[in-house]
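I'll show one example:
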Amino acid sequence: MKYFFFSVCLFIISTAHCQSTLKIQPGGQKLKDFYLSLNVENLWLAQHHVNWETGEPDEPEAEHGNKTHCSAFIASACKRLNIYILRPPQHEQILLANAQFVWLNNGSGDKSGWTKLDDNADIYNKAQQLANQGKVVVAIYKNTDSSKPGHAALVMPANRSATQLAAEGPQLIMAGTHNYNYIALKKGFRNHITAWPSPEIAFFVHDVML
């Protein structure tokens, strides 16, 4: 009887844990593999002027457009998936994240298949859940000073618990001052966050799955 009671308790605990942890689905695994194939930790490097599509350095003597490349990385990833997001030549690489934020919000994003996630207490959970299903989700911030860069990243499919999502937000892959295959939202956007959860960061999902 004691063994039966212990087994039931263990089953309940295990079930509760599974329900509170978002798992990567088959479509999410394909998307994760694709993101990792982009080799962002070695390309789109800060302090180099890069070809936005490949991430390779292309103008060693350039004095502008060589700081960070978060939005160029996103533009390249989306292009390879046949998804349009504002990119060169429609907009130069400089201050592209700010421009992408405006583009996504002004109706152009809707026409290209992007949907803004509702800004509510469940937004981090929803963003991770959609990425885990295999949908492209962008996290993006527009700088309040239009002369300074914003920031953008892609939500990386990952097994994330409710506790992790509440404390750190969804998992990201991004280029920036440092490039990461895996970094939590709170750390990746730390230079742009004034409160937590952050009201400054918006999420957009594309309706096409890998």
About this structure: The first strand starts at residue 21 and ends at 22.
